[in-house]
Design brief:
This protein has two helices and 18 strands. The protein has two domains: 113 residues, Immunoglobulin-like (Sandwich), CATH 2.60.40; 81 residues, Immunoglobulins (Immunoglobulin-like, Sandwich). With 267 residues, the chain is α+β, with helices and mostly antiparallel strands. Helices cover 21% and strands 43% of the residues. The relative contact order is 0.12. A hairpin with a 5-residue loop joins strand 13 and strand 14. Strands 11, 13, 14, 16, 17 and 18 form a six-stranded mixed beta sheet that branches. The C terminus is likely disordered.
Length: 267
């Protein structure tokens, strides 16, 4: 082949390639394929503090992957599958062209129970698989994480005093708190709080009806309180002391009379 013919052939080949490439680019522009995506939103729990030990985990997913499973992991522990999945909507965002790309919006939920005090984190996973391939073969994994805190109200139980009569003006205050707290205190008969570090004895109580309430405050300021405990003090009057005092008085009077009579006799 002559050099001129070879040059013409190369030029024609380049022109054909350029035209073909232009056609492919134009076709792609005319029929763009939407990108695959997944967006996970954790709706509950929020990044805040809760005063309960059981919380709902709820999340929504907007995805174009068609074969998925959903799992969650609490505090890095082994993942558990979320069984409660509700499909909200589905549509072909490729508008009937090939290949069809189905956009799915769904909700998932489960319960997080027996949560301990303190900070926690929960991660929601979407694991996508390839259709017609080994079901254990993952092609994509998406996740979303949220942190939250558990700080329940301290629980206070008063064992003593009880709702009964006491025959002593000194009554033992015995109570229990279910968790570590910043401070504890009590109020007697509606008066100001008295801070304590543990069980004490309520001394010098007057006869009559009394009431006591015990409080405990957590680090975050959550304050728990016991029930109001009503009790009665009916301490006996100290008769022995009265008798002794009466005897002294009589003796003193007798001595005075004796001195008086003696003085009269001398006169």
């Amino acid at each position: 082949m002559k050099k001129t013919e070879l040059a013409i052939t190369l030029v024609l080949a380049l022109l054909f390639s350029a035209v073909a490439g232009t056609q492919v680019v134009n076709l792609a522009r005319a029929n763009p394929i939407p990108p695959m995506h997944t967006e996970i939103t954790i709706e509950k729990p929020l990044n805040t503090t809760y005063n309960v030990n059981t919380l709902p985990l709820s999340f929504s997913v907007d995805t174009t992957f068609s074969r998925n499973s959903y799992f969650y992991s609490l505090d890095g522990e082994k993942s558990k599958q979320v069984e409660n999945i509700e499909i909200v909507s589905q549509e072909d965002i490729n508008r009937g062209k090939s290949p069809p790309i189905i956009r799915t919006v769904l909700n998932g939920s489960c319960a997080l129970s027996n949560l301990s005090e303190g900070w926690h984190n929960v991660t929601v996973y979407q694991i996508s698989y390839m259709i017609g391939v080994d079901p254990d073969y993952e092609i994509a994994r998406f996740s979303k994480n949220i942190q939250f805190r558990i700080d329940t109200l301290p629980s206070v139980l008063v064992a003593s005093p009880e709702n009964k009569n006491y025959t002593s003006s000194d009554v033992y205050l015995n109570f229990m708190v279910n968790r570590a707290v910043n401070w504890m205190g009590y109020t007697l008969d509606g008066k100001d709080n008295v801070i304590v570090t543990g069980n004490i004895t309520l001394t010098g109580l007057s006869n009559g009806v009394h009431n006591v309430t015990v409080y405990a405050k957590a680090e975050t300021g959550n304050t728990g309180a016991s029930e109001i405990i009503y009790f009665r003090v009916d301490a006996p009057f100290p008769t022995a002391l009265v008798a002794a005092a009466s005897g002294v008085s009589i003796a003193a009077v007798g001595v005075g009379l004796l001195v008086y009579f003696k003085k009269r006799k001398r006169g």
